[in-house]
Design goal:
4 helices, 303 residues, alpha+beta, 15 strands, single chain
Length: 303
């Protein structure tokens, strides 16, 4: 069921390169409302108690609170006063925000922080899992004019340092399993990430996390950890822990391997991939696939 609800103002909300308020853990309560510092390099949150009891009411109340000045005078609202939200649409736990055309005038780094803040804050609500962005009724696009797509809080990799400018946009084509587990299905996932993490590692970690949308299925056991990734001479070396060897999901033996291989080759400059388990390549996957080799993209597995 769709609902369009007029919005009276501006949105701002949450992310994570910094701390949240000055309260101790015992004092924290309510929802996190995020504001930008005056130098426009970081986001800080304040905890606010909201009165509404349902999702629609909480969304409206959040937007009203976010129009107010933060308690800390060193901070300011994330969205400029010139930017307005004409409406939003909620469909199957997906929230679509439609902004005025002034949204496109924001500098890139500023816009990334703004978008991250909104996604993280609104996704605090149990009935909101993803947020989509529109401008004047059209999907928000990246610098290559490709749609940003739906986003959730996990798609903003937190900056370990102070360099907000290190954020990049990645429009990934990832390979997940079909319903029967014997073929690979592509899914485009738009992400903002920090260059402190390599794109190769980001790709593998997103495959482990599983598909963000319905219609495709996970390929790798969720308990798998990425030990390291490295690229040399066009080969990506992916070192996973033994969690990768677990039975995991009901997929054929080559699906987890080529989910990684195809995804890496499609989104980076590598031509081949070698997978190791805890640094060892003398292992056999499901008694049929040896890791003591390099893998190339497999087109035959794509549905």
């Amino acid at each position: 069921m769709k609902k369009w609800i007029p919005l009276l103002g501006v949105l701002l909300i949450l992310i994570g390169t910094v701390s949240c308020g000055s309260k101790s853990k015992e004092e924290e309560s309510g929802y996190q409302i995020w504001y930008m510092n005056q130098s426009e390099t970081k986001l800080y949150c304040e905890y606010r108690e909201l009165q509404a009891k349902n999702t629609e009411g909480l969304l409206k109340e959040m937007l009203e609170v976010l129009r107010e000045s933060p308690f800390d005078e060193n901070n300011k609202p994330v969205l400029p006063e010139t930017i307005h939200v004409a409406s939003y649409e909620v469909v199957h736990n997906q929230l679509y925000l439609d902004f005025s055309v002034e949204y496109l005038e924001m500098p890139k780094v500023y816009e990334v922080l703004c978008r991250a803040a909104m996604v993280r804050t609104l996704c605090q609500l149990p009935e909101i899992e993803y947020v989509g962005f529109r401008v004047d009724g059209k999907p928000l696009t990246d610098l290559d004019e490709k749609p940003i797509g739906l986003m959730n809080e996990d798609q903003f990799i937190e900056n370990a340092g102070e360099e907000i400018n290190a954020y990049k946009t990645a429009d990934l084509t990832l390979y997940y399993a079909n319903q029967t587990g014997d073929k690979l299905v592509t899914q485009r996932v738009a992400m903002e990430y920090n260059t402190n993490i390599s794109l190769e590692r980001l790709i593998v970690e997103q495959l482990i996390a599983g598909p963000p949308f319905e219609g495709v299925y996970p390929t790798i056991p969720s308990t798998t950890k990425v030990v390291s990734t490295a690229v040399r001479d066009g080969i990506c070396y992916v070192n996973l822990d033994s969690g990768f060897l677990e039975t995991g999901y009901n997929v054929t033996e080559n699906i987890p391997i080529y989910s990684i291989v195809n995804s890496l080759i499609d989104n980076t400059d590598v031509q081949k991939v070698q997978i190791s388990i805890d640094g060892e390549t003398n292992r056999v996957f499901r008694e049929s696939i040896s890791f003591d080799t390099v893998f190339m993209k497999n087109m035959e597995l794509i549905e």
